[in-house]
Every structure is written in C-alpha cells, then in structure tokens.
Amino acid sequence: MGDTQLKKVAPSLYNIASAKLGTIADHIQISLTGTYSWNITFKRRRLDDRETMQLSALFSAISESPPTLNSSDDYRRWTLSAKGQFLVKSLYEELIKTESNEFPSKLIWNTIDPPKINFFF
Fold this sequence. Notes:
Layout: H1 6-9, H2 11-16, E1 28-30, E2 36-38, H3 49-64, H4 88-98, H5 105-109, H6 115-120
C-alpha cells in the first residue's frame, strides 16, 4: 500500500467512506494485548459485491504489511513531485500534459481540502 491513496486502491470504498479525511490512527484500534482491529465506517450498511471484494483485498493488503503507529503525525503528500511537497512547477507540468483548453475547475474545487482553503489556491 505504501503511499497509495484509498481512492486509487479502492475507489468504490472511498466514495462511500464516512471519514474521507481520516488518518490511519483514526481507523485502527489497538487492544491491550497489542493486536489491532480496523474500525472503518461507510455511509450505508450493505456493500455490493464489488465493494465487498475491494474491502477484502484492502484488508488482505494491509495484513501483509500492517501499519506502524508511532508518535509522528500523518501528513498530506503531493504525488506530482518526488519529495512530496507542492510545487507550482509540478502542477504546471501536469496541466500542460493534459493539453486541455478547459479551465481545470475539478482540480481546484473537487478536492478533499475544506472549501475555505481551496478558494485561496
């Protein structure tokens, strides 16, 4: 899994996830014995077959390499640059690659950041 986003690994699950901005620590519970369990909630109770398969594959992938919870904070990573930091240059290069004449409103407005922050970007 590594740095891969949930919306890329399991898009159907991401679409129905209750806490899209949640961190790993928000969704994991560690018992006194050190075992962990996942507490992931969705907007509806019944998952269809595709969503069930994605959830099974997700848990399987996570169990192969369980997350380590330490005191460091989760953070956002800009996937268009090697160091994970936002660079105007990387955004510009991505926009040039698409060669679209349309204004990239989806790139600006359809994000997981709060609208007040997006307005200033």
